[in-house]
From TrEMBL:
Protein's organism: Sphingomonas pokkalii
Domain SPFH: start-end pairs: 27-235
A Pfam family this chain is assigned to: Band_7_1
Highest taxon in the source lineage: Bacteria
UniProt-recorded name of the protein: SPFH domain-containing protein
Length: 289
């Protein structure tokens, strides 16, 4: 049976709703109809039902089969000034909320975010990933996102969620504390950091961000090309340095002390490490003992 299967009847005595993919909340305002006292309300696993009367939140029902009467409608009873045991039909808005986790949602930066990188200066970064969420605080969601709407879907609120993610991303990366190369190399830690930044924004709407992942961090093509060129130059420099190191350390007619002096100059200018110098120095000294 779909939502309120007895809509053709003046008095509704069976109320239920089967979750629909991508739907977070559904309300039926009972236009011209009344709920029969003793009506059966079915709340399935992962659902919460709220009753409203004249714009005011009233009673909430969690999973189970409920018989609607004054005993389990205390707030609505108070709003309507019912006497205990009141058994006449009544009107109220009934809203079903799905607390099912909405998985596999995608997010991404529509425009590059400018961040201050400690190594390369200002960089424009793009980021993409996935996240999941669910309704955590039903009352907050009802007031801040549902309002007077009859239906709220994931598609309705996703632009707002993505905007919150983009703001959190810009704030987290804008400090420039971590170099872009290090960020890209440790996406798990960055994902956790960004989830912590996203959580408060989701919470204000009654939502919980249950998972958050960065799947890609990238730079504009022209910036990436410049970094690739710089990296290639560094590699070429390393190769040249290694060749000079090998030449200086190779057996030759030169005195060992002369070769050690050459190696020491390479250490001084930073062309080789102290560890490499010490190893070759020991090797050269060993030949003359």
């Amino acid at each position: 049976m779909g939502l309120f299967g007895f809509l053709s009847k003046q008095f509704v005595d069976v109320i239920d709703w089967v979750d629909e993919p991508g739907t977070l909340a559904v309300r039926h305002p009972m236009q011209g109809r009344a709920i029969q006292s003793g009506a059966q309300l079915t709340v399935r696993d992962g659902q919460v039902v709220l009753f409203h009367r004249e714009g005011q939140l009233a009673d909430a029902f969690h999973p189970g089969l409920h018989t609607l009467e004054t005993g389990n409608l205390p707030l609505l009873t108070a709003l309507l000034n019912w006497d205990k045991g009141f058994a006449s039909p009544f009107t109220a808005d009934v809203t079903f909320f799905s607390q099912k986790e909405q998985t596999g949602r995608k997010w991404g930066t529509t425009q590059p975010i400018t961040v201050r990188d400690p190594e390369f200066g200002a960089l424009r970064v793009r980021a993409f990933g996935s996240y999941s969420f669910r309704i955590e605080q039903v009352a907050a969601f009802a007031v801040k996102l549902m309002g007077s709407l009859e239906r709220v879907t994931v598609a309705d609120i996703e632009p707002q969620l993505r905007a919150a993610i983009a703001a959190a991303l810009a704030s987290a990366l804008g400090t420039g504390e971590i170099a872009f190369i290090d960020l890209a190399a440790n996406q798990t830690a960055l994902s956790e950091r960004l989830k912590a930044a996203v959580d408060p924004a989701f919470a204000q709407w009654g939502l919980a961000c249950t998972s958050f992942y960065i799947e890609s961090l990238s730079l504009p093509e022209e910036v990436q090309a410049m970094l690739d060129k710089a990296s290639a130059m560094r590699v070429a420099g390393d190769v040249d340095t290694f060749a000079r190191f090998q030449a200086a350390a190779a057996p030759s007619g030169e005195d060992a002390t002369v070769q050690i002096e050459k190696l020491h100059r390479l250490v001084t200018i930073g062309a080789i490490t102290q560890q490499e110098f010490d190893a070759k120095k020991s090797e050269l000294l060993g030949r003359i003992r």
